[in-house]
Amino acid sequence: MSMTHVDLLIIGAGPAGMSCAIQAREAGLDVLLLDENQQPGGQIYRSVAQSPLADPDLLGKDYTAGAVLVKRFLASGATYWPGTLAWQITRDRQVSFTRNGANGSGGSGQIQARALVIANGAQERPVPFPGWTLPGVMGIGAAQTLLKSAALLPSQRVVLAGSGPLLYLFAWQLIRSGSSVAAILDTTPRANRFPALRYLFSALRAPGYLLKGMGLLKTIRGSATPHIQHVESLSAQGQGAVGSVRYTVKGRETQIDSDLLLVHQGVIPNVQLTRSLGCEHRWDEMQLCWRPELDEWGQTSLTGIYVAGDGGGIDGAKVAELSGAVAALQIGQQLGFFTESVRDTEARPLKRQLNAHRAIRPFLDTLYRPADIFRRPSDPTIVCRCEEVSAGDIRAMSRLGCSGPNQAKSFSRCGMGPCQGRMCGITVGEILAEARHAPMQKVGYYRIRPPIKPVQLIDLANAYVPDADAAPMAAFVPK
Questions:
Q1: Core-most of 8, 226, 279, 436, by most CB within 10 Å?
Q2: Which segment, 222-226, 231-235, 462-466, 468-472, is predicted with the most confidence on average?
Q3: Where are the domains of the chain?
């Protein structure tokens, strides 16, 4: 394999990765950014530079504002490799990758970095419920990706179900685009309201977020879309594909016809890369997720390896952008490009903004805490889609002495499928923790081994030659 050497390697071209690259280039670092997608922006700003939508403003000003960040990134002088998968990282910051060439060919190589920033963002929280494996059931995040990248809108009877800001944002986007939504089934527990009130004063430090949320709800309530709140249970029905959705409110079950059920219970950090490295992680009881242990600059328990953005905890696009810049300042000082005094002076206003934007999170995390039934489902519900292991199977394993997700692999192959535990890891852990009356920190998570995602043998056999087919940066600049 060919070897490339850089000062700073960034994985992920979302707001955190792009901001980190901009700040690092201003300090004079040699920067290389890898991203699996073909355009910069990540999920939040996906395809914003070259949107297929006739009117991207339909998605909201927060989305179109990302074009400015993309433009700054592409003008920063950082080297940008789209269509590139980082599938293995070592503790000495050597990264193995495969890259798709412009002519359709692929190849592999290695990069040695003096510092590494993982900015691979978040993933949707797995939502296991009866029928969730039926064709026609998908995540709202996935549906939003289709809208942003291919201008695809639901053309069938669509039901939105779940909880959290993205549920309302996507409903708002569909209503503005003229799509028909059969119903919005809000699973936010009524009991969450009172605990969330204790954080309301802190949330008022970031009034823009509250006002935005109120605006989304006003549009939804002003439309003809049925908005059913306090949904207690959910199931998808159908033979071969979803045909209807059953839900319960105050113990009363109702059925609604649907060809497409879009679900969402919030997002969680994507920790596959940091887990594969062996970085220290802790269970966050507020956000109900695993997150890497980070210092104030975003550095993990491994020297020279950082996490920026939602991969270190769910805080949103603005915090991701700021955290990328903060990490770059620390790396610049760490590598000798400027002094601690310069670093601290530059970082001070960024950290103030970080604290201001984070003020809303305790309120949101408490209000939209997923109901227990969607985190620890009933026995018949499939938990591991890849190996078809049910929640009842996991509980039976616990009675046989299974103490954690890694042992569950030996019992049932749970977590050994193509997704490598992304769709079941948290659920398996929570079921075992409840069954064994043990804290999640003790139960743990899967050991992640490379390759992080499937790699073709032909790509491993071919060496990637940098710059042989590099696309000009101008090709990505927003029009």
A1: 8
A2: 231-235
A3: 2-123+268-338, 126-265, 372-443
Which of 104-113, 164-173, 265-274, 311-320 is predicted least confidently?
104-113
**Tokens 């797995």 belong to which residue?**
126
Give the per-residue pLDDT at 84: 95
Across 177-206, b (16+ Cβ under 10 Å) vs e yields: eeeebbbbbbbbbeebeeebeebeeebeeb
* Among 201, 256, 254, residue whose Cα is nearest residue 232: 254
Would 2-123+268-338 and 126-265 be classified into the same CATH topology? yes
Of the candidates 213, 153, 146, 144, which has an alpha carbon nearest to the alpha carbon of residue 177? Answer: 153
State the pairing for strand pair 106-118/94-100: antiparallel
Model confidence at 477: pLDDT above 70: no
Overall average pLDDT of the 351-360 stretch: 95
- What is the CA 349 to chain-centroid distance, rounded? 27
Buried b (16+ CB within 10 A) or exposed e, 298-335: bbbebebbbbbbbbbbbbbbbbbbbbbbbbbbbbbbbb
Going by their DSSP bridges, the two strands 233-237 and 244-249 should be labelled as: antiparallel
Mean pLDDT of 456-461: 86
- Mean pLDDT, all residues of the chain: 93
Q: Token pair of 328, please?
A: 């770059």
| Alpha carbons 416 and 408: distance in angstroms, whole number | 10
CATH topology of domain 372-443: Arc Repressor Mutant, subunit A (1.10.10)
| Token pair 């998570």 in the structure block, residue | 445
Query: Tokens standing for 13?
Result: 């071209």
C-alpha dist (Å) from residue 163 to 93, 263, 270: 38, 8, 20
**pLDDT(73) > 70:** yes
Q: How far apart are CA 99 and CA 134, in angstroms?
A: 33
Q: Does domain 126-265 have CATH number 3.40.640.10?
A: no
The one-letter amino acid at 19? S
CA distance 441 to 290: 9
* pLDDT given at position 106: 74
